[in-house]
Amino acid sequence: MPWRFIFDPSQPGLRKILKDHEELALRYFWDEKAEDAGSKEVWIYVNEKLGKDRRISRATTINFLKTMDELGILESREVSGKGGYYPIYTTKMDENEFQRHIARTIVDSLMRDFPKITREVLKEFTS
Fold first, then answer.
1. What angle do helix axes 95-113 and 20-30 make, rounded to 10 degrees?
2. 14-92 adopts what CATH topology?
3. pTM value?
4. Which of 8, 27, 75, 123 has the most C-beta neighbours closer than 10 Å?
């Protein structure tokens, strides 16, 4: 499943491709060394980091985590709990692997559409 993201070169770091709340959701796993987290824990963490003036919905968090799971950036397993079954997430890619994945995705796309120019530009970086 291809992940459609918008690349904004004016933004710093992962904000080039992630919204602030999406980066915070991944940082919950990377920076907090969280394992086996449900959407509720991630949602609470993200909203705490965003501050009281800005909130995101739990559904936004659930949808993002599900997408990251489908793309292999996170992985999930179903556990039973109050009200039925729900997914618990853990990281499958650390931050460096994720950055490599993004760089490869962008370069692959450029190579597919502009192979000659992309090779020329990449050579400029290695010279």
1. 130
2. Arc Repressor Mutant, subunit A (1.10.10)
3. 0.88
4. 27
